[in-house]
Amino acid sequence: MTLGKNINSTFDHVYLKNILEANKRRESFINSAANIELEYEIYTAVRGDIYFPEDYVIKFRPELYPTPANQYLAGNHFTWLSIHLDAMRKRYDSYVTCDDDTIFENVKISLIKEHLPKDWDILILGDMERVAKHKNISINFIKLKTEKSEISGCHCVAINKSSYYKVLDSLLKFNEIGCTGDCMISYLAENNIINLYKMYPNITYQERTLYPPYSIE
Length: 217
Known about the structure:
Elements: H1 3-10, E1 13-18, H2 23-36, E2 41-44, H3 48-51, H4 69-89, E3 94-98, E4 102-104, E5 108-109, E6 122-124, E7 126-127, E8 136-137, E9 140-144, H5 148-151, E10 156-160, H6 164-172, H7 174-177, H8 181-190, E11 196-200, E12 204-206
Parallel strand pairs: 1-2, 1-3, 5-8, 6-11, 7-12
Antiparallel strand pairs: 3-10, 4-12, 6-10, 9-11
């Protein structure tokens, strides 16, 4: 079984977040997904620089997000909110959300769903580290709580319906909590709101060399 079919048989739906103008990113994802035979939906992302003012403040360390990064981050957050509501509306038991700089490793692994922890809420499928291609690998799931370095770069995550309300509540509190993406996932784990696991080794990695974060390409 290909990795893509393995992912599709484990989780109900896969979403790709992509801004209409980000053609190179979309093409990169399409090629990577085709390589592993992954089925997914291209979900048109909110372009933050259209709707959020240049002086929009990201409350969590705003110095990290100068304009237009602050606008793109906000757009990315509310795109996730829209995806999350779509998954709830369609009654998916689980879904995977991917940033458009996600690259899948062409590896062969045992069936993911047969190894999932029973209490998982959010599962990180990869970070910014690569693994060797075309290898049979043994998978493992490690429960995370405060290891921020291991949470960083979680561009491809699976969400279980057991945490839908908890995730929704946090997504709606963007201006209160002040963080999104991996920072929000870290917040949820550190405060014992969710059970967070990471899959080892990575089956995806984040391409930040060709496609810098908060850029449209």
